[in-house]
Write a structure and sequence with these properties.
Number of helices: 10
Strand content: under 5%
Structural class: mainly alpha
Helix content: 55-70%
Number of domains: 1
Distance between the termini: 57 Å
Largest sheet: none
Oligomer: single chain
Length: 207
Amino acid sequence: MEYLLVIGSYFIGSIPFGLVLGKVAGIDVRESGSGNIGATNVARLVGKKLGGLTLICDALKAILPMLIARRALSPGANLELWVALCGGAAFLGHLYPLYLRFRGGKGVATALGIFLYLAPVAAGLDLLIFAGVVYNWGYVSLGSLTAALMMPGLVWLLTGSISNSVLALGIGVLIWGKHRENIVRLMQHKEKSWRKEPPDQGAPDQR
């Protein structure tokens, strides 16, 4: 039963909501903008409403499998571990979806959903950190990287759960790996800011 729940969680996590909502708006988000199926690219291409809906759906597809696992499994010493594994499987489904030949998103919204369920206070604080970084520097990628870096420590300090802390660490490593190109652009000062810059203050000509 437990293994079936984990496998099912992967398939739920594989649902590419960003791609589906982009198609509804008439755009294949894989072929425009950053090419990512996540909420940030969707928001840039088709507007903040669909971007926000993508974020919510990507978070919920992690929460739903964990809710199902908690209800389906009997209380016991390993219940929390199996719930966390279902969340992790949904996260892997988002990063490496079977439906898209294992080319998925970067997992930030799905990770948010996992920890809003497993460690809501830690997730709330991490969300504030993310918002503060984006507000001050204007880079969603930098906010995501900072939040991924902080989450394992926050989960450990606020919950003391070893399984959830290890999950947060693994998720953080994968998020950083998925942001390799963003890290390079940040270091080269070429990353696209979320802010709308005036033409005379925009990025230098890269021709």
